[in-house]
Choline kinase (Pseudoxanthobacter soli DSM 19599), 221 residues
Amino acid sequence: MSIVKHAVIAAAGLGSRLGHGKPKCLVEVGGVMILKHLLHLVKDVEDVRVVVGFEEKTVISEIVRIRPDVLVVRNPGFRSTTTLHSYELGARHLSGDCLFMDGDMLIEPDGFAAFLATCRPGVPRLGITKAKTLDAVFTTIEGGAATAFSRNEPTTYEWANISWLPIKFFSDIGNTAVYEHLRQYLPMDTMELTSYEIDNEHDLSLAKQNLHHFDLAALAS
């Protein structure tokens, strides 16, 4: 049984690189909204918080329709802050550990469930996936642990933007990328997942070509 009791999903961004004119969490892949897919993955997590910003009323409406017990956290500074700030807002006033994930991903359900099942108190863990996106945070793995991040030096794996982290990691943040902030806490344990971050049309096309990983058919009905 998973010990994960808290989850923060960052869904405040503009989605400008994808260019669909709406938050990426509202994009449909295989007839299923990404937000619905993510909320289904965390259906057994009792405290789920979604951080909203761009087109927040529309996102909130969908959250309420899919899972009314989700706590909505507003990020009014979404145009000038990073995902790191959304994570901090979402986890504010919590203690212990929390699952953090971005709101623009498709994740293979069995692997995600295995990730949750192996989370342990006070032991940070990062989800990694085979490098495939155009804007990857390449991750160096040594002995099963992430030891370095890079935007410029390709490796076999990229960070999947899924993390199990102590809340204290977000007590002192700047306006930087999440991976840059997390560098100070490396090395961290990792677990490989099959996931696709939808940052641009290339990523979206890759995800559509691999729909068999995500078990979306039941959610589309």
